[in-house]
Write a structure and sequence with these properties.
There is one protein chain. This protein is an all-alpha fold. It folds into two domains: 28 residues, no CATH class; 261 residues, P1 Nuclease, CATH 1.10.575. The protein contains 16 helices and no strands. The site of zinc ion has 5 residues, from helix 6 and helix 10.
């Protein structure tokens, strides 16, 4: 069952609690599964052969695991999890002046502040250190789990609305833009996106790269909110939202407003394909970071971690998937639609 529905059923006789829960749950009850699964899968295919064979052997795990960090957040109610997925960057001051490590940011701000404003960039840094260590020690399960998790948070960092205070347009009367941007639009048009981002490169300064990405994402959040405001301003409600028989705005199963397909198309054009661009940025950053962790670990031979039979049994499928991926396409899985 969806986390939000479950919570609201439990609390149906406690109105104030219910309201608070709904308020909280509404912001976090979706997972952008489409984006996360596509990013993780595409990143595997872009790796150099020395890494790709091993990662491809576990392609389904890496794809499925891409949404687990969100599941930890709202299904298991993991207290520390939420703050890892976002940063209200405006509350931290100048991004370029932020420290790069978790220890430094924890020395500067107390735990309450960090839980409220998010720790996403420093969590990415933390996972990167752990993944490098796992590669060094050739710990197969840890490599797979950490690489998949890292990809999730790198993707969040490249989703502009995860990096700003006005993350659901709630401050500017644009509520619903978060799921519109991260779920409805990619679900509508994602089959036409190009998921081939080329070969990864080694990142010299990981901390700098993370803060640079944050800065780009945060600037894009302004743009995407402003563009939506401009577009919707002089438009009738029924052109923007799907309206049900009773005259109300239609909602999906997560209680999020549903936009019209025409409006989604128009908006995508107005932001010049920013959704696809950010998905591509996430794929390429994920592959760069996996590759860099492996290089920094001394390029260990990971192919020996799997039995040869497994690699052999996957070889033909890999060839076919690479053929498709060269044309920018992914196959062999189905994301659970939220819209
Ligand atoms: Zn997330």
């Amino acid at each position: 069952m969806n986390a939000k529905i479950e919570i609201s059923m439990k609390n149906q006789f406690h109105k104030p609690v219910l309201l608070l829960t709904l308020l909280f749950a509404q912001l976090f009850s979706y997972s952008a599964a489409f984006i996360h699964e596509h990013v993780n899968r595409a990143a595997v295919l872009s790796l150099p052969m020395s890494l790709k064979t091993f990662f491809y052997n576990h392609l389904d795990f890496i794809t499925e695991e891409s949404t687990i960090p969100d599941v930890r957040k709202y299904m298991f109610n993991d207290k520390g999890e939420s703050a890892r997925h976002f940063i209200d960057a405006e509350n931290f001051g100048t991004i370029e002046l932020l420290p790069g490590s978790m220890a430094e940011i924890q020395a500067k701000y107390d735990e309450v502040f960090l839980q409220k404003n998010g720790i996403l960039p420093w969590y990415v840094q933390d996972l990167m250190t752990k993944l490098t260590k796992a590669f060094k020690e050739k710990r197969k399960t840890e490599i797979l789990l950490l690489a998949s998790d890292l990809a999730h948070y790198i993707t969040d960092l490249n989703l502009p609305l995860h990096t700003c205070i006005n993350y659901d347009g709630q401050l500017t009367d644009q509520k619903g833009i978060h799921s519109f941007w991260e779920a409805q639009i990619p679900e509508l048009f994602g089959m036409n996106y190009n998921y081939n981002t080329g070969e990864p490169r080694q990142i010299e300064d990981v901390q700098k790269e993370i803060l640079h990405t944050l800065s780009v994402s945060n600037r894009l959040s302004d743009t995407l909110l402003l563009k939506e405001k401009e577009l919707s301003q002089n438009m009738f409600r029924d052109r923007i939202f799907q309206i049900d028989a009773g005259g109300l705005i239609r909602k999906n199963k997560f209680n999020q407003v549903v936009h019209t397909v025409d409006y989604a198309r128009l908006y995508s054009a107005n932001i010049h394909g920013m959704v696809e661009k950010q998905i591509r940025a996430a794929i390429s950053m994920t592959a760069n970071f996996w590759y860099t962790a492996w290089v920094d670990a001394g390029m260990p031979d990971v192919n020996g971690l799997d039995p040869q039979e497994l690699t052999k049994s996957k070889a033909e499928q890999l060839k076919q998937d690479l053929q498709l991926w060269k044309a920018g396409k992914l196959s062999g899985f189905q994301s659970e639609n939220e819209f």
